[in-house]
Amino acid sequence: MPNRLAHETSPYLLQHADNPVDWWPWSEEAFEEARRRGVPVLLSVGYSSCHWCHVMAHESFEDAETAEQLNAGFVSVKVDREERPDVDAVYMEAVQAATGQGGWPMTVFLTPDAEPFYFGTYFPPAPRHGMPSFRQVLEGVRQAWTERRDEVAEVAGKIVRDLSEREISFGDAEPPGEQELSQALLGLTREYDPQRGGFGGAPKFPPSMVVEFLLRHHARTGAEGALQMARDTCERMARGGIYDQLGGGFARYSVDRDWTVPHFEKMLYDNALLCRAYAHLWRATGSELARRVAVETADFMVRELRTAEGGFASALDADSDDGTGRHVEGAYYVWTPEQLTEVLGAEDARIAMHYFGVTEEGTFEEGASVLRLPQQDSVFDAEKIAGIRERLLAKRAGRPAPGRDDKVVAAWNGLAIAALAETGAYFDRPDLVAAAVGAADLLVRLHLDEQARLSRTSKDGQAGANAGVLEDYGDVAEGFLALASVTGEGVWLEFAGFLLDHVLVRFADPESGALYDTAADAEQLIRRPQDPTDNAVPSGWTAAAGALLGYAAHTGSVPHRTAAEKALGVVKALGPRVPRFIGWGLAVAEALLDGPREVAVVAAAFDDPAAQSLLRTALLGAAPGAVVAYGTVGSEEFPLLADRPLRDGEPTAYVCRNFTCDAPTTDPERLRAALGD
Predict the structure, then answer these.
(1) Looking at residue 37, what is its pLDDT?
(2) Which residues pair with 463 in a beta bridge?
(3) Residue 666 in this model has a pLDDT that exceeds 70
(4) Which residues contact 458 (CB under 8 A, 6 or more apart)?
(5) Separation between Cα atoms, residue 69 and residue 123, nearest integer Å
(6) E-strand stretches of 486-557
(7) How far apart are CA 397 and CA 117, in angstroms?
(8) Model pTM greater than 0.90?
(9) Going along 374-421, which residue ranges are E strands?
(10) Residue 435 CB contacts under 8 Å (≥ 6 apart), including other chains
């Protein structure tokens, strides 16, 4: 018989709806039930494409004896971290403070007042490698709760007090200047892996936001070392197993330092951020590899993640059926020499093995290899390789596909809108721009209420009940601003303004300008989460700072620019110390130092080819964080277009800072030079 999760919309929660565990969704009713019964709460947090979440579910939550133990002694609450990042953030902070590490599934035991007192992540069904079994943990917690309740309450109270004292007070500091950004670049240089690209050791995550900082720093200063780190890192990833060499798109991370073996789940946010980063790398260098990867990644998002409603699904699972009934990580993507021979024949299989780095012993498990590009493409016949790739892709399409998490997350769709809009504009792909517009339309239609408040998620055309958090407002506004520049439709600037007004009123500290992850009127947790550091995505803090700055550049709004400058105070404090973990904040700081530049392109007719040429030149300008407004003379859609006449009757471009402009030009080459200054 299904449990209460059967009424939820989250794919992750629905995966547990038939568990014998008497699950509750996160709700006040669950904690009231714990108070009524006098038992602790088990909080289990995960997400649908999490491999170890699936493992623990199969081992423990589907086990009748474990479920009986849980149901007798606990109220069990299941949370999708992607729907409730605020709940995840608060309790993950407690887990990391107590254990020194974190991860998912996250397992936390709470009092009926939601105060945590015991923590962990994955627990096995039997004792293993010094780790207790999950059932041993349950029994130990039950005994502590019944026999040492006062001690448990004291521990829980201390943890909550410690968390409440972790207030971040950098909001009123000055934004970073040349010195701090140079120190951040030096710090990245020290952590850079010159042999393999990227930063740090294994596991290795794609540093998309750091790449954006490096590209902007190079554009502003001409620092060749910054460009070299960005270019080499992107090439190593694109040639590694972390990139899907057949279908395009990136996996979550590499388990090794060489980008060879990925953790195979594919997330919308990674692909949106990397698509945009590779497009910007092409803009800076003209790299054919960067162009190909940007376009293939955009095509992957549209082909495999776009939903029927026009939004973009959250993720593809790492695991799938290997054809024998086993659910195996990477089964959809890896190949053995025998499989290649079966599809291609002996001669073409030999070429494919050489081209894709497939070995007899394998680079993954059970003799299988992850496809890579260890050799330069020029060694091989392009037409032959294209045919091989097409045949392998067709064969792979017949394998059992990984599951898809179909929920639409507002923030991640905002990132996808920005990436698709710019990639479509750069490479003359109006279909990609149309896909960005479709996702933006969905967010406005389904996620925004009459007061322009965002819902965090939707699924199957139905908005979820959870309120948007700061990253939703910042990333969706960023996507709308990019769409406004590409399409010349000022309505997207207007919608961005609605969202950013909420940031100023509901998410910012009125005194210091510091930002919180949840709104002042949101559900009150044991603390109000606040984290300025970038992780897999830009933090809400830095995402909002970037959007506030871009909106101010478009409109001349002093309150929005002031809020962006205050928010960037945290980057001044953290950038020189932990540059890898505040890359988007550093990128926004580069835009602030550069102006950012404001480009107005005016024409007598919207579809004038000469005007379109100026617009394309403006969009391809690498000036950090530059904004572009395009329209006809007298248009009121963009403030930047006000009082901007044509020059000699020709389409004209104006390059400005703080609404003070250089001499206008009708020449794309002069515009290009002005944006490269």
Answers:
(1) 97
(2) 458
(3) yes
(4) 309, 311, 407, 408, 442, 446, 447, 464
(5) 15
(6) none
(7) 47
(8) yes
(9) 404-405, 408-409
(10) 301, 302, 306, 310, 420, 424
